[in-house]
Amino acid sequence: MTDVLARLAALRADDLPVHTGRTLAYVFDSGLPEVDRVAREAVAAFAATNGLDPTAFPSLLQMENDLVAFAAGLLDAPDGVVGSVTSGGTESVLLAVQAARDGTPHVGRPSMVVPDTAHAAFHKAAHYFGVEARVVPVGDDFRADVAGTAAAIDESTVLVVASAPSYAHGVVDPVPELAALAAERGIRCHVDACIGGWVLPYAARLGRSVPSWTFAVDGVTSVSVDLHKYGYAPKGASLLLHRDAALRRAQLFAWADWPGYTMLNSTLQSTRSGGPVAGAWAVVQELGHDGYLELTRKALAATDAVVAAVEAAPALRLVAAPDSTLVAFTTDGTCDPFTVVDEMQARGWHVQPQLSHRGRPASVHLSVSAATLDHAEELRAALDSSVTAAVASGPVAVDPGVAALVAALDPETLTDADFDGLLAAAGMAGDPAAGGFALPERRAAINARLDLASPRLREAVLVAFLDRLARPGS
Ligand SMILES: Cc1ncc(COP(=O)(O)O)c(C=O)c1O
C-alpha cells in the first residue's frame, strides 16, 4: 500500500507544480492550504459515489443544486434559472451547443456564429454535433465584431456565442450587442465565461470596471462557468446555466428502449463520480463570497503587477489590456515569445506559448492566480532576465528549406511514415531507447516550426504526436 503511494508521489515528481503560484496555465491556485485540504478530503469522501441516479445519491443532487443556486446569484440569473454540474468547460460548451441544436428542431442544417477567439471547445462541439461553426474575425480590439456577426446570422443559426473573457487575449466580447442580435431573431446566445465567470462579478464588486455580460443582459440564454478554474475547486467541475427550464429541456436525455435500467442523464456522462461535485461544493462553502472577493483582489493585483512588468520590458508588447486575470504579450522582434517561455520555465515559471493565428503574431499567455501575488516581484525579475536571455540568443531561426517544406505540405496527403519523419524533424520523436516520447526541456525550436504550419497541418502533426504518445510503453 505505502509502496503504491510512494510510487504515485514519484510519478508526480515530473509534473508541473499545482500549488506554488508559479504555474500560470492549466492550474488555478488559491494559495490557501486549508482550502486545498478540505477539497482533497471532500473528493476522497465522495470518489466512489455515482451521480448516475439522482435519487440513489441525494447528497449529490443537493450539492449540485446548491452550486447552481450560488452561481445564479453571482451571474444575476432570474428566478427560474436551471443548471447542471459538468466535468469541465468543454463539456459545458458541448452541452450548450447540443441543447441549442436539439432545442431548435425546425432547423435542418444548423449553424452557430462564433468569434474567431471563441474557445476551441466550440469547434469540438461543431465536429461532434454537426453544427456548422461560422467564424467571424474579431476587430482590432480583439472583441467580437457585431456587424460581422449580424451578417453571418441566417435562418440556419441556432446559437450566437460570446466570451467573457476570451482565453487567448483576456477581453470580454460586447455581450449586450451580440445578445440583442440573437434575441431580435429568436436565437439563443451563449456566454462562455468558463475562465472569467467566477472573477468578473467579484471584480465588479471591488470597483473595477467590468463590461456587462451576465444574465442581467437581455437575450443571454445560457452561461458556462468553471468551478475548477477561478472557483479554485479541484479538477472536474464546471457549471452550465440556462435562463429557464425550457431552454435546458433538450439537454436532458432518457433512454428506456433496452432491457436494462432506464438511463436518465443531464450531462454527457452517465456514471459520474461525486468526487468533483463534493470537492467544488466544499470549496465554495469554505470560501463563500468573502473568500472569493479576497482571492479576486489578490489575483487582480497580481495581474496588474504582470501587466506593469510587461509594459516596463522594452522587448515585450501587451496584446490587450486585460478585462480579468488573463495576460497575453508578444515581442518586438528582437526575441521570440517561444524562447521567453523556455527561459521562464528554466527559472521555475510555467507560462504558455500561443502560436500565431490569422495574421496575429505568436504570444505568451498567463492565467494569473491569487497565489501569484506573493511572488509578484520574483515573477517580474524572472520575466526581465528571461527577456534579456531571449534577446541575447535572438529569435529562433528555422532553416529556409524546412520552412519551404512546411509551407508546401498538405496534411490530407501525408502517410503515417511521413508523420514519423515530420515528428523527427520537429524534434518531437523522442528517443525510444530513453523511454520514448518525452519532449525536450526547451521547446522554442519545436514551436517555431509549428508556428510556420497552417492550423490544419499543426492539428495533423499534433494528432500524430498524441497517437504515438498515448501507447503503452511509449
Ligand atoms: C473560455 C473557455 N472556454 C472553455 C474552456 C474549456 O475548459 P476545460 O479545459 O475545462 O474543458 C476554457 C479553458 O481554458 C476556456 O478558457
Q: What is the multimeric organization of the chains shown?
A: single chain
The count of helical stretches stands at 16
The amount of helix comes to 40-55%
Cα-to-Cα separation, first versus last residue? 26 Å
Q: Determine the CATH topology of the largest domain.
A: Aspartate Aminotransferase, domain 2
* CATH architecture grouping of the largest domain: 3-Layer(aba) Sandwich
Family: Belongs to the group II decarboxylase family. Sphingosine-1-phosphate lyase subfamily.
GO molecular function, one term: aromatic-L-amino-acid decarboxylase activity
Protein name: Aspartate aminotransferase family protein
Pfam families: Pyridoxal_deC (PF00282)
Description:
This is Aspartate aminotransferase family protein. Its cofactor is pyridoxal 5'-phosphate. InterPro entries: GrpII_AminoAcid_Decarb (IPR050477), PyrdxlP-dep_de-COase (IPR002129), PyrdxlP-dep_Trfase (IPR015424), PyrdxlP-dep_Trfase_major (IPR015421), PyrdxlP-dep_Trfase_small (IPR015422). With 474 residues, the protein is of the alpha/beta class. It has 3 domains: 33-284, Type I PLP-dependent aspartate aminotransferase-like (Major domain) (Aspartate Aminotransferase, domain 2); 296-393, Aspartate Aminotransferase, domain 1; 400-469, no CATH class. The protein is 42% helix and 13% strand. The protein has helices spanning 2-12, 33-46, 58-74, 89-102, 121-129, 146-152, 175-184, 200-205, 245-248, 275-312, 337-346, 376-393, 400-408, 416-425, 444-452, 455-469, and strands spanning 82-86, 111-115, 132-136, 157-163, 188-192, 222-226, 238-242, 253-255, 263-265, 316-318, 326-331, 352-354, 363-367. It has a 7-stranded mixed beta sheet with strand order 1-7-6-5-4-2-3, with helices on both faces. The chain starts with a helix and ends in a 5-residue tail after the last helix. The structure holds pyridoxal-5'-phosphate (PLP). Residues 88-90, 93, 119, 121, 163, 167, 192, 194-195, 226, 238 line the site of pyridoxal-5'-phosphate.
